[in-house]
Automatic annotation (TrEMBL):
This is CDC45-like protein. The keyword Nucleus applies. It holds the Pfam family CDC45. PANTHER family: CDC45-RELATED PROTEIN (PTHR10507), CELL DIVISION CONTROL PROTEIN 45 HOMOLOG (PTHR10507:SF0). Residues 164-273, 358-384 are annotated as: Disordered. GO terms for molecular function: chromatin binding; DNA replication origin binding; single-stranded DNA binding. Belongs to the CDC45 family. It comes from Ascobolus immersus RN42. Residues 261-271 have a biased composition (Pro residues).
């Protein structure tokens, strides 16, 4: 089932009606991403306001979810709601939790809410209970089942898929084996008919000529008798309006032996069971093809979870600057990992949040208002906690190190200037020279740069940047002040949270990298540090050096792979393998590996595009975890995407999962991301060979 966006307030009323304040009856499961973290914090504020105790747990993959199911969900009689944030959209969560079978104890199962931006939806979650929620005291139907939060794409885009799924649910099972058995029976019947017809034809040939003449004589006599009968006159009926046989009652009308009106047609014969089964089978195949096409179009992303949770707070009239800031950080962080929603949804969300910033943070009396030309880096006072709209450079953490390093490590500039190569570094130096900024100035800390240079930086960057294809390098963003302590943009905070969730720029110990239990403990610590940093500006500022360390490590590894020619090309994809190096430990985290693959993929794509190449291959990046003997593989696809109603879809990730399921190589699909898997060290070559044999690219 799914909950439309207009019914979020009804969902909250449904939660209040069935949750119990006496014990923790709400379990919140969140993916380790900045967006899911911000969304869970918004939900925490709402639940605390309602005095509802709850438990929040980070869930990195299917193994973590299975452990939580065994320890926290099964047999928990007080649990009423399981709220999944950033997970649960791609797989049948009821089947995964074992709810497709009846509970032998007869215990009432909790209700599951799925708030996930990943697409495609698992149609069993969306339409399994009947589709859109209806009825009930709160308009949300009865209690229980799986209910997905719809940001609008289910009702608008999944009409055909919903009809196909519901039709398949109501159809009886008809296997193809029955059709083959019916065809065999039909062939046997046809052979029997042919044999019978053959015997009759042989009998006719044995007729004598005398019998034929006798039959001909009989037929001539019948024709003559028929002609005499047809030409004999019939008695005329009596004329008059009323003719009676007894003089009192009307006589019956004469029988018309040649009626002028046609006789009523007989009803058509009922189709045979075999015909009905064939029609049912064709209809089933049609609906199955519709659903298969939906799943095969590729993976994509929709509205961030933080924007949906802020919509709930707004519907409840509980919005405030703190919750708004969480939504801004969550939505801004999606660009770090390439999880942006379609342009139409992104613009709509941005406009709504911009209006909220202006409404909740009006300028003080006598203030000049919001600046639209220069970045806002000066707070209004020691107690200033306001959020303001400000033009933001798409440079990484520009306020916290030098302008040169910020541009050198910018995900927006790296592919466009090809900064992984020496020629790209020269282009960056020429760009700075044309802007009139010396290397000495731009390598200073940004806070100590000349104020006049800061005021004119936007004009210089936009003017000279057009010569290098840097359109959109400055865009409208959001900044928040914490008194005199700091001024941070929403994008900066998203980058810091992402680094904290990926380890905070600290290399794991060798024994920790080889133990699954230690990895779980490390994941919980990373989540706690990131969650605390959202509420404490001192912890947030203390995490900036680790964020810069992780950015430098990403730059070093990517530069080494490109300059040493370690990216190999096969028929249908490229691949690179990182087996050793001082920075290897940073990328044993799926989030850090995903960011490294995105930087590499965008750089290769932009270089080939500028060179006039039309076909661009996906990139598969593998990093060795020597302590566990596995490769963590990440797939990144830049060019082979399908733009369907403005939604960028990754088709190669689907083939990535299919090969992982069909190959003999020992692989483990543990991440909720379709593009991340683990492969045993000795099976990596076989996995690449099987993936190469797949025809996954067109043209």
């Amino acid at each position: 089932m799914f909950i439309p966006r207009t019914s979020l307030a009804a969902a909250h009323a449904h939660l209040l009606r069935h949750a119990t304040p006496a014990s923790p009856s709400i379990l919140v499961l969140a993916a380790p991403t900045p967006d899911a973290l911000c969304a869970s914090r918004i939900l925490t504020h709402i639940l605390k306001h309602d005095f509802l105790p709850h438990l929040i747990l980070p869930v990195a993959g299917y193994r973590d979810l299975e452990v939580i199911n065994q320890k926290q969900i099964k047999g928990n009689e007080t649990l009423r709601f399981v709220i999944c944030i950033g997970l649960g959209g791609l797989f049948d969560i009821a089947e995964f939790l074992g709810w497709d079978e009846e509970d032998p104890a007869g215990q009432e199962r909790p209700e599951v809410w799925v708030i996930d931006a990943r697409r495609p939806w698992n149609l069993g979650n969306v339409f399994g209970g009947g589709g859109r929620v209806e009825g009930g005291q709160d308009g949300l139907g009865g209690f229980g089942g799986v209910k997905c939060w719809d940001d609008g794409d289910i009702e608008v885009e999944l009409g055909r898929e919903g009809e196909a799924y519901k039709a398949l649910e109501g159809m009886p099972e008809v296997s193809d084996e029955e059709e083959s058995d019916e065809d065999d029976d039909l062939e046997d019947e046809e052979e029997e008919v042919v044999d019978l017809l053959g015997e009759e034809s042989k009998g006719r040939k044995r007729k004598s000529s005398e019998d034929e003449e006798e039959d001909a004589g009989r037929s001539r006599r019948r024709r003559l008798e028929g002609e005499e009968h047809e030409t004999s006159p019939e008695p005329l009926p009596r004329r008059g309006l009323l003719s009676t046989s007894s003089g009192r009652y009307p006589s019956s009308p004469p029988l018309d032996t040649h009626p002028s009106s046609p006789t009523p047609s007989l009803p058509p014969p009922m189709p045979s069971q075999r015909t009905l089964r064939r029609k049912l089978r064709r209809l089933r195949h049609k609906h199955q093809a519709t659903i298969a096409h939906y799943y095969s179009t590729g993976t994509s992303y929709s509205s961030p979870a933080s924007s949906l949770l802020y919509s709930l707070a707004s519907d409840l009239s509980r919005e405030d600057p703190d919750l708004l800031w969480l939504a801004l950080v969550g939505c801004s962080s999606t660009e770090l990992y390439g999880h942006q929603p379609p342009p139409t949804i992104e613009r709509s969300t941005f406009n709504i949040l911009r209006d909220e910033v202006r409404r909740l943070n009006p300028p003080p009396p006598g203030a000049a208002g919001t600046s639209t030309t220069t970045s806002i880096d000066t707070p209004r006072g020691p107690d200033d906690r306001s959020i303001r709209i400000s033009p933001e450079f798409r440079f990484l953490l520009i306020r916290h190190w030098s302008l040169y390093d910020s541009m050198l490590h910018s995900p927006h500039l790296i592919p466009r200037l090809n900064l992984f190569s020496p020629s790209g570094i020269k282009r960056l130096h020429k760009l700075l020279a044309k802007m009139g900024i010396s290397l000495t100035q731009c390598r200073q800390s940004y806070t100590h740069m000349d104020m006049q240079l800061k005021r004119t930086l936007r004009e210089k960057v936009e003017g000279v940047g057009r010569l290098y294809g840097l359109e959109g390098v400055v865009r409208e963003g959001y900044v928040r002040s914490w008194g005199w302590k700091a001024v941070l943009s929403a994008g900066d905070v998203g980058a810091i949270l992402g680094a904290l969730l990926e380890g905070g720029g600290t290399l794991p110990e060798v024994e920790e990298a080889g133990s699954v239990e230690r990895e779980d403990d490390e994941q919980q610590r990373n989540w706690n540090r990131a969650s605390d940093a959202l509420e404490n500006i001192d912890l947030l500022l203390a995490a900036i050096p680790g964020t810069l360390t992780l950015a430098r490590a990403t730059m070093r590894v990517a530069t080494g792979l490109i300059q040493k020619g370690q990216i190999k090309t096969l028929n249908s994809f490229r691949f690179a393998v990182v087996r050793d190096g001082p920075d290897l430990g940073y990328f044993l985290n799926p989030g850090a590996l995903q960011r490294l693959a995105m930087w590499l993929g965008e750089a290769i794509y932009e270089e080939e595009r500028q060179g006039g190449r039309r076909r661009h291959l996906p990139l598969v990046l593998a990093v060795l975890n020597g302590a566990r003997g596995v490769f963590l593989c990440e797939e990144e696809e830049e060019e082979e995407i399908v733009l369907e109603e403005g939604r960028a879809k990754n088709r190669f990730g689907i083939a990535f999962q299919e090969v992982a399921a069909s190959t003999n190589a020992r692989v483990r699909v543990d991440s909720f991301e379709a593009s991340v898997i683990e492969v045993r060290q000795e099976d990596l070559i076989g996995f690449f060979e099987e993936l190469s044999r797949r025809v996954v690219l067109g043209g």
